[in-house]
Amino acid sequence: MVKTLAALPDGPVTVSGWVETVRDQKKVQFVILRDESGAVQLVNPATREVEEGADAAASARLATTEAISALAHGSFITVTGELKHDERVKLGGLEVKIASLDVVTEANPETPIAADSSLDKRMDWRFLDLRHPKQALIFRIQTTFLHALRGVWVEKGLIEIQTPKLMASASESRAELFEVEYFEGKAYLAQSPQFFKQMAQAAGFGGVFEVGPAFRADPSFTSRHATEFTSIDTEISWINSHEDVMALHEELMVAGFTAVVERHGAEIAELFGIELQVPSRPFPRIPLAEAKQIVADRGYVIPRADDDMDPEGERQISAYVKETFGHDFVFLTDYAASIRPFYHMRHEGDASLTNSYDLIYNGVEISTGAQREHRIDVLVEQARDKGMDPEELEFYLDFFRYGVPPHGGFGMGLARVLMLMLGESSIRETTYLFRGPTRLLP
Ligand code: AMO
C-alpha cells in the first residue's frame, strides 16, 4: 500500500524505508530514509560509549548508534521516534528523532550500480535502478496515462478484450515472427492483436480496446525497438474513413496528456526538466507524399528506395511541424499500398494509396492506424497482391463472409509514448523490464 510520509502528523511515529545516505558525525548521526512516497531525515544524538554498569536505556542508545554507523546504503529499516515537520530539512521537510531502530533486511555494502553506470548495467540491476524517484515516476505517469485512456474507452462503451498471444499464423510481417514449439506442432507469438480486434467487429462488439504484450523477432538494437512491448490497441465499427480513427486517437491522447499534466506536471518539471503541455486538437495532418516533399525541400532525401519515412525523415517532418504549427504531433496520412499490410483499405479510385496513417510524436512514430478493408473479394485480392496465401488466412477471412461493418483502428507502443513525453533516450528507460535480442534477464 502506498503511504504518504508527508501526511503524517507531528508526534510519535513508526516509519520504514530504504537507507539512502548516512552522515555519521561525532556527536550526531543523520540518515536519509526513503519509501515510495518520499524521504525523511532521521536524526540520532550519538552515544559513543557508556560507562560500565550503565542502565539498559544507555546500552540501547549505544547499540542504536553502532547500528547506524554500520548501516549500508539500501538496507531496509524500521524506526520509531518523534516526527517533526521542519521546512529547513531538505528533501521533504520531515525529521524523526530516533528512539529505536530495527534493521529489517541488510543490504550488501557494495552497491552494484551508481548514478553514472551504463544503461546496460542499470538494466542488469533494474530493481535497484527503479528505486530512484525519477524511475518510479515514469511508471506512475504510465498508470495515470492508461487510466485516462480507459476512462475514454469505457465512457464511449467500448469493450476491453484480452486476445491470445499464442497464434497459428503471423499477424503482421512474417519477417519478425517468433516461432515456438507447441506440443507436436508449431505456434507463433502474437505480433499484434490485429486479427482478433477486427474479429470483435464481426462479432458485433462495436468497439474494443486492449493493452497487452506484442512480440516482434526484430534483431535491431535501436532506441525504439524491443522484442516484446506493450501495445495499446483499439478498433471501432461504423467509421466513414481513417479520419474517424484519427479523431478518436486525438481524443485519447488529449485525455491521457491532460491527466498526466494535472497529476504529475510539477514532478515532471522538477525531475525531467520538461514543461509538459497538453496537445491542442486537431493535430496537424500531412499526406505522406507531401511530407516527403517537405523533408526533401529541407535538404534531406530519404535514401531508401521504398516509399516509407525513415527515422531521420520522421525527425525532419516533426521539426517542420513544430516550426510551422507549434505542434509536437503530426498524422502522416495516405501511405502507399506498397508499404502497408494487405488489410488496409485502399483509396476509392486510387488503389496505390491507403486510408491509413502513422502518428509521429517529437520525431518518432508512435502509432499506426487505418480503415480496414471489409469487402471479402477485395481483401482476398489484396492478400494475393502481397504474395500471401488466402488459405492460410481462412480463419481471418471468414470474419468477412458473414457481414461486417466498416471499421478501423490503431496500435500504439506504450513505451515509445513515455520515452518521447519525458525526453528519454531509449524505450529501455520507459519499459519496466526491457526485452531485446540479447536481453532476457532479469
Ligand atoms: P505497427 O507494426 O506499426 O502496427 O505497430 C504499432 C506500433 O507499435 C509500436 N511498435 C514497437 N514498439 C517497440 N518495439 C517494437 N519492435 C515495435 N514494433 C511496433 C510502435 C508502432 O507504431 N496492427 C498494426 C496497428 C493497427 O493498424 O492497428 C501494427 O501492429 O509504436
From TrEMBL:
Top-rank taxon, per record:
Bacteria
Give a Gene Ontology cellular component term annotated to this protein. cytosol
Note down the stretches annotated as region Aspartate.
194-197
Query: Per its UniProt record, what Pfam families does this chain match?
Result: tRNA-synt_2 (PF00152), tRNA_anti-codon (PF01336)
| Keywords attached to this entry | Aminoacyl-tRNA synthetase, ATP-binding, Cytoplasm, Ligase, Nucleotide-binding, Protein biosynthesis
**Catalytic activity, reaction form:** tRNA(Asp) + L-aspartate + ATP = L-aspartyl-tRNA(Asp) + AMP + diphosphate
Q: Where does ATP bind?
A: 365, 413-416
EC nos: 6.1.1.12
Tell me which residues make up the Aminoacyl-transfer RNA synthetases class-II family profile domain: 139-442
Record keywords: Nucleotide-binding included?
Answer: yes
InterPro entries named in the record: Aa-tRNA-synt_II, aa-tRNA-synth_II, aa-tRNA-synth_II/BPL/LPL, Asp-tRNA_synthase_2, Asp/Asn-tRNA-synth_IIb, NA-bd_OB-fold, NA-bd_OB_tRNA
Q: Provide the protein's localization.
A: Cytoplasm
Bilayer-spanning residue ranges: none
| GO MF terms, alphabetically ordered | aspartate-tRNA ligase activity; ATP binding; RNA binding
Q: Does the keyword RNA-binding apply?
A: no
Any single biological process term in GO: aspartyl-tRNA aminoacylation
Q: Which NCBIfam families match?
A: aspS_nondisc (TIGR00458), PRK05159.1 (NF003483)
Instruction: State whether it acts alone or in a complex, and with which partners, per the record.
Output: Homodimer.
Q: Which HAMAP family match?
A: Asp_tRNA_synth_type2 (MF_02075)
Similarity field:
Belongs to the class-II aminoacyl-tRNA synthetase family. Type 2 subfamily.
- Role played: Catalyzes the attachment of L-aspartate to tRNA(Asp) in a two-step reaction: L-aspartate is first activated by ATP to form Asp-AMP and then transferred to the acceptor end of tRNA(Asp).
Write the protein's name: Aspartate--tRNA ligase
Native source species: Agromyces badenianii
- Tell me the classification of the organism that encodes this protein: Bacteria, Bacillati, Actinomycetota, Actinomycetes, Micrococcales
The gene that this protein is the product of is aspS
